[in-house]
Design goal:
The chain is an alpha+beta fold. It has 3 domains: 61 residues, no CATH class; 115 residues, Phosphorylase Kinase, domain 1 (2-Layer Sandwich); 107 residues, Transferase(Phosphotransferase), domain 1, CATH 1.10.510. It contains 9 helices and 10 strands. It is globular and about 50 Å long. The relative contact order is 0.10. The N terminus is likely disordered. It binds adenosine-5'-diphosphate and magnesium ion (MG). Adenosine-5'-diphosphate binds next to strand 3, strand 4, strand 5 and strand 7.
């Protein structure tokens, strides 16, 4: 975080709505410096940016703890530029979730270290994927949204809602439009996960790595600690990368998964796997995943 160059990040992320107040503060600060005849003795751009992130983090926490109903206040934000109003389409999607999906879907978490198991998905809902916390479904009538349903007994829902509130909008992340106890309505990200690209033999260009690096830098700038970025959580579409899972970004411990994955990308994938005419079998990918996890445990 300390090494983040804020001025270049500001241009890069182009989140003008968010940064406008920051620009104003910097200008004000510079003007005051000029008036008082001091030469830039006031806090640096980076310090102001960090203070702003902390303030927004505290506000998000307060907003979260103040709410007393089980419906989380993401959609009631006063900033229309950041969270759009709950429109009719999300309302219709929500209705389908309550009337069909939730009463009928059957999910189970067999082992916290393995993806949850979906025993039944009601038609026409489709299962897009599963992770260690939740299953993600889409509906053919609502192509822009997905619903992420947490398995009974799995923690992490509140944290994920908070992370999305802090992330606001960025092209490499999904967005949370609505959250209610146990599920979130998210923007659908299209593409193939990095893991599936390896399995299907689809090329993963360097631009994907650059996109994810920038997205993680942005998340750090927002006061988060990116965590658990592995092949299932990165989506590739038209040569660009997006991150589908931010549920662990509030965890405080360090996580080297993305750095390790990048090392494997440059030392194994690019010289060897990229040139194979076929994909890597699933059993092989699973063995590498389990071996990596074991190695990290004993380290
Ligand atoms: N916004 C999304 N758009 C499309 N697919 C998604 C989205 N979010 C998750 N998925 C799919 O669902 C899978 C599991 O979601 P994920 O958020 O990783 O769950 P968990 O937090 O349990 O690990 C992902 O690997 C991905 O295939
Ligand atoms: Mg995941």
């Amino acid at each position: 975080m300390d090494t983040l160059d804020c001025s270049s990040s500001i241009l890069e992320y182009r989140v003008h709505k968010y940064f406008r107040p920051l620009f104003r503060k910097i200008q004000q600060n510079d003007r005051q410096c000029g008036e008082k005849g001091r030469h830039r003795a006031n806090p640096s751009t980076l310090q102001i940016a960090l203070a702003d992130v902390r303030e927004r983090f505290a506000q998000a926490q307060l907003q979260y703890s103040n709410q007393n109903a089980h419906i989380l206040p993401l959609m009631q934000s006063n900033d229309p530029g950041i969270h759009p109003p709950l429109d009719a389409e999300i309302g219709a999607f929500l209705h389908l979730i309550h009337s069909v999906l939730l009463p009928e879907v059957q999910l189970e978490s067999l082992n916290p270290e393995d993806p949850i198991v979906v025993h039944f998905t009601p038609c026409p809902w489709q299962l897009l994927g599963t992770g260690n916390y939740a299953a993600v479904f889409c509906h053919p009538e609502h192509p822009d949204f997905v619903v992420k349903v947490y398995a009974p007994g799995r923690e992490g829902f509140e944290e994920e809602v908070r992370v999305y509130a802090l992330l606001e909008q960025h092209p490499a992340f999904s967005r949370c439009f609505y959250a209610e106890q146990g599920f979130l309505i998210l923007l659908r990200l299209y593409g193939t996960t990095m893991y599936d690209c390896l399995h299907l033999g689809k090329a993963i260009p360097k631009q994907v790595i650059t996109d994810i690096d920038r997205a993680l830098e942005y998340a750090r700038f927002k006061g988060l600690r990116p965590h658990d970025i592995h092949g299932h959580n990165v989506m590739v579409k038209n040569g660009r990368g997006t991150i589908v899972d931010v549920s662990d970004f509030l965890k405080q411990e360090d996580c080297s998964t993305w750095d390790d994955l990048k090392t494997a990308y440059y030392w194994i994938y690019r010289p060897f796997l990229l040139h194979l005419p076929w994909g890597v079998p699933r059993w092989c990918l699973t063995a590498v995943r389990k071996g990596y996890r074991y190695y990290k445990k004993i380290l």
